[in-house]
Amino acid sequence: MPLMKGLNGGVKWASRREDGNLPPEQVRMTMADFKDQLEERRKLVDGKATQYRTTRDEWNDKTKTHTTTRNELNAEVRELIVQVREQREIREQMNEIVREKKSARSTASDAVKAAKLALDNAKGPAAPAPREQQQGGKKKWEKRPATVHSLRKDLHRLENEFEQGRHTGKNEIKVMKRMKDISAQIKKLKNAEDENSDLKDSRAAVQEAMAEQEIAHEEVQKAATAAQEAHELMLQWNSEVDRQRELAETAHRGLRRSKKEADKAHHFYIVSLRCLHSIQDMLRAMRGASAGAGQKQTARVEVQDLMGKLMSGQTLSTEELMQLQSNE
After folding, report:
1. What is the 3-state secondary structure of 257-277?
2. Radius of gyration over alpha carbons of the chain, in Å?
């Protein structure tokens, strides 16, 4: 027995005539109820299709954002890797220079030792070590021969004591005479050294060798500092590479998720369109032909063509999909 929609929205069985057919008025009521139900379903499916399309578009926008962010971060990572390589090359170059400068410094140090040895030879035999002497029951060490260095040290000490006022009266005159004698001794010794060409040349050689040694040492320090700076910068940029890579990976994970969600929403959108298309076909069949059907038939052919493409798995543009949804 056919179903009929009751006044309270429920469903009841329609009564038949004796010949087994429904009365015409009941047939009309049943078709009208069915048409109303289809129209309700059409509106519901149309709303769902719109919702899925909106959701899909939102996820697609997020996908574009994640893609842009990931690509920008990956570009920065590539640039940082280039910088890391450059700093590594600089560090290796500086380390090579450090090795070369250390070798030069070692050679300069050997030259200083040789120059000092030559100077010692030019000065002649070294003075004997002071010996302990016995005088009147007291032990006393004999003094070493005076040198320019020892005399200048004594002179500097006496000058400081004199400035501090530690020598006054007769002692002041005595100290002044002592300082004058020491200055004379220094001058005498220097004149003697200046007349000795070997000694003079040896002193100059020592000074020159020490200057070369100092220059070599400064170059070692300079190259070592540059190598260390390049190494620290390389480590810093390596850390930045790791950080940027992690951000890019995070963006990529977000991209995969948003693309997955967009694909899922699109799938539901397509299913909704197919359901909507079926409901619209049923409604058209129930409405039958009407005035101006020729124009509607032309539009219907276009919709059928689009639906055929969709069912066969072909890709439709957003405009074509929206045409399918809005066409009745």
Report:
1. HHHHHHHHHHHHHHHHHHHHH
2. 54
Burial class (CB in 10 A: 0-12, 13-18, 19+), 278: middle
Name the strand (E) or helix (H) holding 134. strand 132-135
Q: Residue 8: count other Cβ atoms within 10 Å of its Cβ.
A: 6
What is the model's pLDDT at position 20?
Answer: 54
* Backbone angle region of 150, left / alpha / beta, with phi > 0 → left and psi within -120 to 50 → alpha: alpha
149 with 193: CB under 8 angstroms? no
Tokens of 25: 């008025």
Concatenating the DSSP letter of every residue in 230-252 gives HHHHHHHHHHHHHHHHHHHHHHH
Please list the residues that pair with 3 across neighbouring strands: 13
Which amino acid belongs to residue 307? Answer: M
- The residues of the chain scoring below 50 in pLDDT are 1-15, 27, 127, 289-296, 298-299, 328
**Exposure string for 29-49, b = 16+ CB within 10 A, e = fewer:** ebeeeeeeebeebbeebbebb
pTM check: above 0.85: no
Q: pLDDT value at position 320?
A: 58
DSSP string computed for 278-309: HHHHHHHHHH---TTHHHHHHHHHHHHHHHHH
pLDDT per residue as tens digits for the range 98-130:
998 888 888 888 888 888 787 777 666 554 555
pLDDT at 9: 43
